[in-house]
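User: Please predict the structure of the protein below. I'd like the answer in structure-token form so I can feed it into my own downstream comparison script.

Assistant: Understood. Taking the following sequence of 123 residues as input:
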Amino acid sequence: MKNLAIESIGQIAVNVKDVTRAVSFYKDVIGLPLLFESNGLAFFQCGETRLLLSLPEKAEFDHPSSVLYFKVDKLPSTVMSMKEAGADFIDEPHMVGKMGNTEIWMAFFKDGEGNTHAVMSEV
């Protein structure tokens, strides 16, 4: 197979039912910087990756989003802050696995659109 030299993910699209409600959640609860909104689209910056929130363009795109894993340094305090801001967590922070000496911890939550995402930390 040929080396395609893919460097990273540039943008991820998340389907939403209500763009205004979703913008409020991703900005005020998760704390992502809003880049801009235009014609029912909202763009956020998450590290080097851009996040697009939008209504599905066509029926074939109308499905729940992929699970986004937001990497954080301090998982327990992030979960607490997000809960205080209104996030609905499905579970508490828990270890999901080990890579050598590194523990991988996660906590899953629902955004205001019903999509499941997680915050994660490598300790």
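That's the full token string. The first helix runs from residue 19 to 29.
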